[in-house]
């Protein structure tokens, strides 16, 4: 009997242990509830039946083992959430400004290199095609205004030729003059509203448009630094050096080379300066030239490279200058190693125009000077235009003129007898006429002919007959 009572209790205990291994109840496990409910009801019925049987009769009852119910996890399909349209935030529509322009085309003088090359000082008319992309009409109270860059003799402002409604295009023009020096130049412009507000092109209508030109013309060699090598004072950090220097000198040296050989072995047909720095760490050599009067448009030109065979060459070239006895200023510095290439210099000296400038050519070692030998090839100042011929003075002697007299007839004379006759005769004098010479030339310059005195005539009387 005890065994029969223990079996249901064991079954309940087993089921309760299995409950801890099952997932918590939820929407996905609601189907398990009926199974658990049925199992519990079966166990309760079995317990009641056994109790009644036991109390009614003490007979031994043979029990048939009852298999425990097996819990089955039945998955419920995942609930599908309702679909909603994707929320897309609309970008705010940019407001169109009152005044805005769009560049359409360069009607004349497009940007280099497509545009023509202008002569120095050439006058030209730049024309742009612009479109009104704002909401306000441009009127003649609007103007094209210069805002920066190379001035090119531009006027401060040019009124618009007429009304330009939104969406319309207009050709705007301005008269300009090319600079008197070579190079590429830009002049920047914008538009100005009737209220004085500047506007231009671009998304924010705040960018300028421009006139871009390239200027070139004839030039001539004004100063040759190589030819005037020894007009400069050459020195290292502490010592003044001889010119020309002794090649291989540990103090550094400079020498004139009529045919320099470049890093790649090519021989040049223009002269250069072979320079080597002082043989100390970071050594240098520099030459300061006499003052040169610089004009607008002057340019410094040269090629820089290491000497052929100077495989360890590692140097810095520097172009400096001094005004009078002032401090040394640097125009530029360029590194060079022996890699088969060269550096070309073409520097505008207009910023120094009107001044007497002492140029200084410098070569510095980058650390060790071992093997440092390099060239300034044809260093020169080039001046725009054509050279002014040098006047050659020619000695001109003063001509000597011999006047040719032209007599005037009949001559007029006054006889002057030189004696008092005696006796009763009448002397017959012989006369030499006196006349005034008339020159047949017109004297040139300040020449005054010197007259030749003509002695008065001498009357020679005839000797009377006895």
UniProtKB/TrEMBL annotation:
Gene3D superfamilies: Immunoglobulins. InterPro entries: Ig-like_fold, Nbr1_FW. Signal peptide: none annotated. This is Hypothetical conserved protein. Residues 402-414, 452-466 have a biased composition (Pro residues). PANTHER family: OVARIAN CARCINOMA ANTIGEN CA125-RELATED (PTHR20930), PROTEIN ILRUN (PTHR20930:SF0). Residues 383-466 are annotated as: Disordered. Residues 384-401, 415-451 have a biased composition (Low complexity). Residues 116-215 form the Nbr1 FW domain. It holds the Pfam family N_BRCA1_IG.
């Amino acid at each position: 009997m005890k065994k029969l009572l223990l079996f249901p209790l064991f079954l309940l205990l087993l089921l309760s242990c299995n409950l801890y291994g099952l997932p918590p109840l939820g929407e996905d496990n609601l189907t398990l509830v009926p199974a658990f409910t049925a199992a519990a009801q079966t166990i309760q019925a079995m317990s009641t039946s056994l109790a009644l049987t036991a109390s009614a009769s003490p007979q031994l009852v043979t029990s048939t083992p009852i298999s425990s119910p097996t819990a089955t996890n039945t998955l419920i399909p995942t609930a599908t959430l309702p679909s909603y349209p994707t929320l897309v935030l609309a970008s705010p529509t940019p407001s169109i400004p009152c005044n805005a322009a769009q560049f359409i085309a360069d009607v004349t003088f497009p940007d280099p290199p497509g545009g023509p090359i202008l002569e120095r000082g050439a006058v030209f008319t730049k024309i742009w095609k612009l479109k009104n992309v704002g909401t306000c009409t441009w009127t003649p109270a609007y103007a094209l205004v210069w805002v920066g860059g190379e001035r090119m003799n531009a006027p401060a402002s040019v009124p618009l030729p007429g009304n330009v409604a939104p969406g319309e295009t207009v050709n705007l023009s301005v008269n300009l003059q090319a600079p008197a020096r070579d190079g590429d130049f830009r002049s920047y412009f914008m538009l100005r509203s009737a209220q004085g507000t500047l506007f231009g092109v671009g998304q924010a209508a705040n960018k300028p448009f421009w006139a871009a030109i390239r200027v070139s013309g004839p030039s001539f060699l004004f100063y040759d630094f190589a030819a005037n090598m020894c007009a400069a004072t050459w020195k290292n950090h502490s010592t003044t050096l001889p010119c020309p220097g002794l090649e291989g000198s540990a103090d550094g040296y400079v020498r004139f080379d009529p045919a320099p050989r470049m890093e790649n072995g090519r021989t040049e047909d223009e002269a250069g300066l072979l320079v080597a720095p002082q043989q100390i760490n970071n050594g240098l050599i520099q030459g300061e030239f006499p003052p040169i009067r610089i004009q607008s448009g002057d340019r410094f030109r040269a090629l820089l490279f290491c000497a052929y065979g100077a495989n360890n060459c590692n140097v810095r070239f520097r172009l400096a200058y001094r005004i009078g006895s002032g401090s040394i200023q640097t125009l530029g510095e360029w590194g060079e190693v022996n890699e088969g290439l060269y550096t070309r210099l073409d520097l505008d000296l207009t910023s120094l125009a009107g001044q007497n400038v002492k140029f200084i050519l410098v070569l510095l070692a980058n650390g060790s000077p071992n093997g440092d030998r390099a060239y300034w090839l044809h260093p020169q100042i080039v001046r725009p235009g054509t050279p002014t011929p040098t006047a050659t003075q020619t000695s001109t002697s003063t001509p000597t003129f011999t006047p040719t007299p032209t007599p005037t007839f009949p001559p007029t004379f006054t006889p002057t007898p030189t004696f008092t006759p005696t006796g009763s005769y009448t002397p017959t004098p012989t006369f030499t006429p006196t006349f005034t010479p008339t020159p047949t030339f017109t004297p040139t310059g300040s020449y005054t002919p010197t007259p030749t005195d003509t002695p008065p005539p001498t009357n020679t009387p005839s000797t009377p007959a006895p």
